[in-house]
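During the no-cost extension, the postdoctoral fellow (Dr. R.K.) reprocessed legacy sequence entries with the updated structure-token encoder. One reprocessed record is reproduced below for audit purposes.
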Amino acid sequence: MAPKFVSLRVRSSCCLILATVLAACTESSRTGPTQPGPAVTAAGPVNLTLEGPSSIAPGTTARYTVTAREVDGRTADVTSEALWASSASEVVSIVSPGVVAAHARGDARVNVHFRNLGSQKDVVVLPDGTYRLIGQVTEAETASVPVSGVRVEAASGTGETLSTVTGDDGHYRLYGVAGLVEVRFSKDGYRAGETELTVDTHTARNVELSLDRPRAEVAGSYVLTISAAPGCRDKFSEDLRSRRYGVTLTQTGALLEARLSGANFAVSRAGRGDHFQGRVEPDGLSFRLTSHVYQYYGYAQYPDLAERITTPIGFMIIDGTARLQGDGSRFEGRLQGAYQFFQWDPAWGGTATIECRGDHEFVLQRTS
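Re-encoded structure tokens follow.
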């Protein structure tokens, strides 16, 4: 009988242990999971803060710090562990973690990364006690039309020797002005303008310029011929060295649209590939043919001019900036940009099979 008694007691013990475990599990399910302890640090910080000056004088250095904050509020200085980078190394560069050197006047962005987080800070480089003056120059007749190539110069006040030229978007930037400043704006074909203002902080001032002559009306039908630059001709077969298209120019104020015809154009899903934009300048015409930028799996900035070619099979892509002069019936000039042949549709990636950059001939001949 003894053996049977021992066996029964063992089973009873097992049942008691199992019941205790089940009870513990049941209680845990009622109360929910336990709160995380100090191990939360292994999951990484939840916030990253980059601190330091927003302005640095040329030829000097400045120190910055990076602070990581945990979910429980604790913080740690991770300056030496973070990865540092500058968006414009010609303006500021990273000497060592936390040390930034200023070079040329301008704007830059300091970027830091630590584990899965990032932070950034905009920095402007200019002499101590001076400020940045920015703005946009547009046409008085059509305020939404920017004016490129305008000379902008400080004529008085601190920084009176500074000057710059507006870009394609009409924007200008002067770094290092202060006090009562007179700024002058000039470009052939426009009446000169000026503005006077007190600059005691970073300041923005937009300006409108008026035409000094009636704007030309150029809408109509044309033939466009684009020929590869002399230094590029040997790279292309004879039938690819020059491309010829019909063009319908429509004009709204200063703005132009050139709609192409007479070829088999590769038009993207967004409708690009057979037209481009331009404008009527006081001394001629200008056009910008947007380039191709591939990203991934068909997502890309498709070019403004993409032509399907049958012999050899492929795609001609032409981009760049054209500036033309003429008498109303014929406009000619140079396209500064790329003359390219792709074996495959560039929307799906790859690089040009043949590519040559230079000043290509660009001629518009009116037909009606």
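Residues 57 and 127 are 5 Å apart (CA to CA). Helices lie at 2-31. The remaining legacy entries will be reprocessed before the final report is submitted.
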